[in-house]
Amino acid sequence: MKRVGALALILVLSACATSSLERLKPGSMTLDRMRSTEKPTAEWKNSDGSVTLEYSNRPPSAHNVMLDFDGKGVLVNTRIVNTEDSIGLLKTGMTRAEVQRIVGSPDRVLKDSQTGGDIWEIPTQFAVDDSPQRLIVIYWHPRVDGATRIVADQRF
Fold first, then answer.
1. pTM greater than 0.90
2. In what side-by-side order are the strands of the sheet with 132-140?
3. I need a labelling partner for 39 at 20 to 30 A (CA). Which of 21, 62, 114, 132 fits?
4. How does pLDDT run across 93-140, given as a tens digit for each residue?
């Protein structure tokens, strides 16, 4: 029986190592095991006692994945968050933390040559060579933590 449990653990950890976090099923992972398997990009403690782990910019999947754990530390939901649908949830005036909770961390951060503010690029679709084809582009105010413009950008 111990061998079956060890084999199951190896299979789950292998799934993590091959960048297939989006395939994890509810109940298949605990918070402590996930933290020890792979360091998250960000971690949020929610008001209801649950915890959300963010895993971003993880080749080869290139998906920003959020893992939601209940108050007991059991996986309850897995979400790919850098999607075309996500742009509709973003609003100007949001802070970096609010945006990150919705779409995950940016793939690239650039400087706006006109304003001096940051520009976040978050890919939503990828070409065969894994280069970004479509992006969410977020322009940030240079002195205040607030998004000033949010656009979808097509790259060829």
1. no
2. 108-111, 118-126, 132-140, 147-154
3. 132
4. 999 999 999 999 998 899 999 999 999 999 887 666 666 678 899 999
